[in-house]
Design a protein that fits this description.
With 104 residues, the chain is mainly beta. It is built from two helices and six strands. Bound molecules: zinc ion (ZN). Zinc ion (ZN) binds next to loops.
Length: 104
């Protein structure tokens, strides 16, 4: 860990329309995600093989219009997203979300 917690600490999380999720971080950076990409990046045990790390999720099985129904905080380090396709076991640590930011 770098010790700079503001990089991995969100100031606000909000949906921008049906397809985009925006996170503003405490260091001032804003990340905008296509929500379906976040669904495809789910790292839970049913989406990624725990032993090999290989993806088990078939992208074609994820609806084009998949979107978050509910987003809940998990402690101080992550969010859990309840998806419109019924999937709700994915935990997204803030550090990983920051890595997934398409704009770095
Ligand atoms: Zn998953």
């Amino acid at each position: 860990m770098s010790g700079d917690g503001s990089r991995h600490s969100p100031a606000s999380i909000r949906q921008q329309g049906p397809r985009q999720l925006s996170i503003t971080w405490r260091d001032g950076h804003e990340s905008v995600y296509e929500v379906r990409n976040l669904r495809l990046a789910c790292a839970c045990a049913s989406c990624v093989d725990e032993w090999t790390g290989a993806g088990r999720l078939e992208p074609a099985s994820v609806p084009e219009d998949v979107h978050p129904l509910r987003i809940e905080p998990v402690g101080r380090y992550a969010i859990q997203i309840h998806w419109s396709d019924g999937h709700d076991t994915g935990i997204y640590p803030f550090a990983r979300l920051r890595e997934l930011d398409p704009n770095g």
